[in-house]
Amino acid sequence: MKKRWVKIVAALFAFSLIAAACGDSDGDGGAANDSSLADAEAAQANAEAALAAAESAQAAAEAEVEAAQSAQADAESAQADAEAMASDPGEPALEFAGEVVRVTGPERSPEEWGSLQAAFDEFAAGTGMQIIYTGSADWEAEINVQIAAGNPPDISIFPQPGKLADFARDDLVLAVPDDVMAGVSENWNDAALGFGLVDGTQFGVPNKNDLKSLVWYKPEVFSAGGYDVPVTWDELLALTDTMIADGVTPWCIGIESGQATGWTFTDWTEDLLLRFEGPEVYDQWVTNEVKFADERVVAVFDAILSLWNTEGAVFAGGGSISSTHFASDPAEGLAADDCAMVRQASFFSGFLPEGSSDAIDVFYFPSIDENQPVLGAGTLAGAFADSPAVWAVMEYMGSPEYANIRQVFQQDAKGGAGALSGFNTANLNVDRELWAPLEQSFIDILQNAAVFRFDGSDLMPADVGAGTFWTEATAMVNGEKDSSAAAAAIDASWPEDS
Which fold has domain 93-210+377-444? Predict the structure, then answer.
């Protein structure tokens, strides 16, 4: 508005000068007129110069106002920043900066170790701690040595709830605090949590599960041979005989597993006892109410040995069943068509050669009737050290975030999105879309099976389930003992106070 008035005043001033000059032209001659015109033009020039000067002054004034306003805004912004800094002193220090948590367990393949460590690294990055995982094929023996030497890890991953229970009763592992279990229990059903309970107290946090009642096969081989997927035990035996007659080796089987050699035989025993005699007898057998020498258990031993010892029934990549690895050799044999079937748990997909999983499928390990019980297993984390950092890791191991990260890394190691990873979980809150459709079905079965039983040998006292059951099974497979003698030896090893 001020600029507009400056222009108007300057224009009026110029007009008055011109008008005065023109008025004088009536009283004088031509020379006077010329002089007046020159004066008028000079006056107009002066007026225009004055107008330009006024506009320049106005522009300078406005620039000064704008500069002042900008300076004021900058000052206000700086003040706001200062106030914000005063109320927020910066990023807080990481909670467990500089702390180290050592974890051990039985998982040791490159894919398993890599995915497990990746999950730990992700958590460590957000807390400032360092988590170091060490896996070993001889975990069962090594944890005993570490305990005896007074140098246990901070946390260990137990594949056998029975061993965890033994340690708990000997006051070697720590009960999980209530606040930790409050977070963990949101992610697991009562059955999964129950395997970490010892005499009513929670000592273990579930972190991985496997579905065991599976037979892996190549649909293309079945189609080429005209074989139907068996739905009963008798049909499975008949299929075995038919394949042998056709020159096809039905089974790849191995029980070698370092210090744990023999556990594959225990899995077959558990699956068949659950099918032949039902869950009630199975439960009684696990708690020693039904002895190994019971004729029903011995009959299961004999059924397994009869099948495995049938001429032409088994391809053992290691030369003999007891010297053939429980998973890697059968996986290679199945992929190479050295055999048609492998009975192994859901983790078996993690051992399949890269690029072979698309040609391989599974069917349910047949039962004797319409009942379809499911055998499963899993690992539990137990703590030997009492510190906030250790309990933070324990709670994390029972979280969906831990499982999701493990799955992403393990699947990537096995070929990327859509590949079978071999890592499975009954965690209720994982992102199932991260798993291949087949393994999504495993998760569904683990969470919802009508009749589900945990691996029986893993629930037994460690001296039996991770001891004589393995060694006596190996003796039977090698022909060193018959089923009755092996059963008697296992019964004799059962701790009197268990």
Answer: D-Maltodextrin-Binding Protein; domain 2 (3.40.190)
